[in-house]
């Protein structure tokens, strides 16, 4: 039985700015593209503070996962790219607030700069098979 890669274009997210999908699913795994703090209408939050950018970028990741029937409790791995290692504690505080009890594996990578002047970009890998998220997931 051949399993195909399914691309997902979730509601509530701006159109991708390039040749990619916001999320792709294969088998029981969902992979999100790196999400910046772009609002659903395509406007940018790069001029806002770091915490606001984290909230929008993580909200975009969660919206991409919802399209596959997954939520925070289904996330296996998160990678966050942040401009400036000094922003790490601020990232961690917003991340903990938004993720609640979910504690997926995580990597935070300090970088020099990101596209459009953003200070954070986040992607994730989650469980979210064709039949939806596992029982009891948020």
From TrEMBL:
<dbReference type="GO" id="GO:0005829">
    <property type="term" value="C:cytosol"/>
</dbReference>
<protein>
    <submittedName>
        <fullName>Reactive intermediate/imine deaminase</fullName>
    </submittedName>
</protein>
<dbReference type="Pfam" id="PF01042">
    <property type="entry name" value="Ribonuc_L-PSP"/>
</dbReference>
<dbReference type="GO" id="GO:0019239">
    <property type="term" value="F:deaminase activity"/>
</dbReference>
<dbReference type="InterPro" id="IPR035959">
    <property type="entry name" value="RutC-like_sf"/>
</dbReference>
<comment type="similarity">
    <text>Belongs to the RutC family.</text>
</comment>
<dbReference type="InterPro" id="IPR006175">
    <property type="entry name" value="YjgF/YER057c/UK114"/>
</dbReference>
């Amino acid at each position: 039985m051949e399993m195909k890669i399914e691309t997902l274009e979730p509601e509530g997210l701006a159109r991708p700015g390039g040749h990619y999908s916001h999320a792709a699913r294969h088998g029981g795994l969902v992979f999100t593209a790196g999400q910046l703090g772009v609002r659903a209408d395509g406007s940018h939050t790069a001029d806002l503070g770091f915490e606001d950018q984290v909230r929008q970028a993580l909200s975009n990741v969660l919206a991409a996962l919802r399209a596959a029937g997954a939520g925070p409790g289904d996330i296996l791995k998160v990678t966050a790219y942040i401009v400036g290692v000094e922003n790490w504690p601020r990232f961690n505080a917003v991340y903990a607030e938004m993720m609640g009890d979910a504690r997926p594996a995580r990597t935070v990578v300090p970088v020099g700069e990101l596209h459009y002047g953003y200070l954070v970009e986040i992607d994730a890998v989650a469980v979210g098979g064709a039949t939806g998220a596992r029982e009891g997931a948020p």
